[in-house]
Every structure is written in structure tokens, then in C-alpha cells.
Amino acid sequence: MSTKAVITGWGKCIPPVELTNADLEKLSDTNDQWIIDRTGIKSRRISHVDGTDLAELAGRRALAAAGLDPKELDLILVASTTPDLICPSVAAMVQDRLGAVNSAAFDLNAACSGFVYATANAAGMIESGFVKKVLVIGAEKLSGVMDYRDRSTSVLFGDGAGAVVYEASEGDAGVLAVDLGADGGKGQTMVLKSMGTNGNVFESLLAEEMALHFEGQAVFKIAVQGIAASVTRVLGTAGFESEEVDVVIPHQANARIVDAATRLLKLDESKVFMNIDTLGNTGAASIPMAISDALDADQISPGDIIVLSAFGGGVTWGSIVLKWGERTERLGHHEGELPPTDATVFDLIEPNLRFFAELHGLDPEDLPS
Ligand code: UT7
User: Fold this and answer.
1) DSSP secondary structure string, 272-338?
2) What pTM was estimated for this model as a whole?
3) Ligand 1 pocket test target in 220, 221, 224 with most atoms within 8 Å of CB
4) Using a 6 Å cutoff on CB, does residue 36 contact ligand 1?
5) What residue ranges do the domains of the chain occupy?
């Protein structure tokens, strides 16, 4: 039996402040019904702390669930498109905070496909014997770069972090097959020029340059076809028919993208786990947060065949087939929490509203409450 990477711990960190559809109605010509019908999203979270804080707490929770001391880690790998800083990496900062003194650390950016790419890296290094215990984190603070008056993007994205521990195992459980791909020629459909979300990123930058450029319909079509093709390939590599899949955990991009891909693949929709309604699209964080939520909802059982699939900027895509191990209960719990906050959601997004006001012909002092 060959060495495989099996999930032994999982956790997530969602910041407490919500940005509801009703809040967004105050910022642009949108409405609750349109957002729910077209995306499946009712609310998303806006972080009052740095993305690294979210990553650290999700990581601590995953380590506790795995019953691991941070010193046992060989590698920390963080997938993020919105790191606090480009250098040092989020992974290096988390390594320091955890005291994971025996661990290597690096960040990886494949946009919303980041967690799947990171899993492929972790599994490959575990299978080759380079490492044995890896903490993979998906963390995003997308609120750090959003123009909340641009209704074509503001309704979609939220903040959060999810983490998973992969350990070497000689059993039949673990990552079984990987499909990764990219089409850089379509990269201009999603462009984010901002660099780093730490501090006031808007200082000395031009609003018209920094707004997230996003061709929603084009991305929608590429995503549906890309996910369906990638899942078909990865199931073929793993030697499974779609009926043999127990749970599908897709990137939570848009409920309609997932529904359309589910229909194309002729998958049973009751097997597809969704939590987009309360968290929105959290980029690289969405799949590990959904893994944690699916376990809490008892939707994953020992030995289940699970498909992870994502699509994102670049453009990039990736799918994984894995067999869950024997344990679906956490070995331990990390009791730490984020620091509390009294800030309202409009307090938290005030820098964004001021910075992008001129793009909408508005006075930067004209702020909602
Ligand atoms: O994580 C990976 C990257 N992201 C994604 O995967 C997201 C991909 N794309 C999408 O999710 C969808 O394309 C959106 C949610 C962004 C947009 O949904 P859509 O169904 O493609 O809407 P649309 O762009 O075709 O617009 C339909 C109508 C338009 O009005 P007209 O021209 O028909 O009168 C838009 O102006 O809806 C209007 N519209 C809105 N109305 C209210 C667009 N955005 C909004 C809005 N609220 N937020």
C-alpha cells in the first residue's frame, strides 16, 4: 500500500461582523431577492482583524482536531489571494505564531482554486516522503480590496479562513487523484491589482486602477464548464463513476454555478455540500471552511469518497478525489477566539467607501450608517 495524505484535523475561523443583503441595498442599486436568486447568498462576513489572524485561528483549531503539537508540523501552506503582506508570507507569520519551529512555510496563489492546488502540493510532498504532517490553510480578507458600491462584485465576496491537517498514512484512505489546470489566456476576466491588505491599502493608489475587474457572465460560463470537465477527469483518474461519490464539496462561488455544474455532471444534488448562503464566496477559504461545516453537519462518514472542486482567477481550476479516513470526530478543541469588536459593518468598510467614492461620483464624506 502506498503512502497517502489523509485529513486528520479541520477547523475554520469566521469573523463575527456580517454584511447582509439589506446592508448592500444601502450601497448600490441591488436587492435581497436578486442576490439570493442569482447567487444563493444572504450574508457574508467582514473581518475586523488581519487575514493572518483568521488563518492562525483556523490553523490552531485544525491542529487541535488532529491532536497535534505545532512542533510536529513539517510544512505550513497557506492559499490566499489577499495576504496581509507579500513578504513575509502568511504561512511564515502563522509558523512563528504557532511556534511550529520544525515547519517550512510558504504561500500559494491560485485564487479561488488555491486550496485545491495547496492540497495537491501537500499530498505530493507527503507521497514522495519529503514531509509527513502538513497544515494547509485557505484564508482571505477580500473585504480589504472590495468596492462595495460596485454591485457586480460586492454581493459575492466575504472573509474567512479554513484549515486542514494532512498526515502520511499507509492505509487506503487519503488523496487518490488530482486534476489541476490553468488558462492564462482568459486571465483578464478576473483582475485584482491590489497588493496586500495590511493597513490602509488605499493610500496613494488610484481608485480606477484598483477596483476588482470582473466579467461575471464570462467567468460564470468558464466556471461551469471548467468544473464539470475537471471533475470528469479526476473521477476517471481515480477510477470512480459519479454514483460512487458520497460527498461533493465545491468552491462556493455562486449557487447557480454549482447547480449548473451538478446538472452537467448528472450528480445527485443532495450529495453536494453548500454553505454559501451565510458566508458568500470566500475564495481559497471556501472549501476548507465547507469541509469543517460538512463534518459538523454529519454529512461526512468514515470511508466516504469525497470530491473537492474549484475554479478561480488566473484562470485556474482543480479537483481532488479523496477517501475520508476512519475518524470524523475532533480529537481536541482549541478554545481561543478572535478579539471581540464593537465595530459596525459600515465602520469596517468605511476606507473602501471613501476610496472608491469618486468612481461613483459621490462625496467621500457621504457614508451610510
Ligand atoms: O470564485 C470564482 C470567481 N467568481 C465567480 O465564479 C462568479 C461568476 N459570476 C457570477 O457569479 C455571476 O455572473 C454574477 C453573480 C456576478 C452576476 O449574475 P448574472 O446572472 O450573470 O447577472 P448578469 O451579469 O447577467 O446581469 C443580469 C442583470 C443585468 O441587468 P439587465 O442588463 O438585464 O437589465 C445586470 O445589470 O442583473 C443586473 N445586475 C444586478 N441587479 C441587481 C447585475 N448585478 C446586479 C446586482 N443587483 N448586484
Assistant:
1) B---HHHH-B-GGGHHHHHHHHHHHTT---TT-EEEEEEEETTTEEEEEEEE--S--S-S------P
2) 0.96
3) 220
4) no
5) 4-330+342-360
The CATH fold assigned to 4-330+342-360 is Peroxisomal Thiolase; Chain A, domain 1 (3.40.47)
The total number of residues written for the chain in this structure: 369
- Residue of the CA atom closest to atom 2 of ligand 1: 312
The answer to whether the CB of 224 is under 6 A from ligand 1 is: no
Residue nearest to atom 20 of ligand 1 (CA): 38
Is 112 an annotated catalytic residue? yes
- pLDDT of the chain, 369 residues: tens digit per residue: 799 999 999 999 999 999 999 999 999 999 999 999 999 999 999 999 999 999 999 999 999 999 999 999 999 999 999 999 989 999 999 999 999 999 999 999 999 999 999 999 999 999 999 999 999 999 999 999 999 999 999 999 999 999 999 999 999 999 999 999 999 999 999 998 876 776 666 766 788 777 888 899 999 999 999 999 999 999 999 999 999 999 999 999 999 999 999 999 999 999 999 999 999 999 999 999 999 999 999 999 999 999 999 999 999 999 999 999 999 999 999 999 999 999 999 999 999 999 999 999 999 998 887
Cell 483549531, located at residue = 61
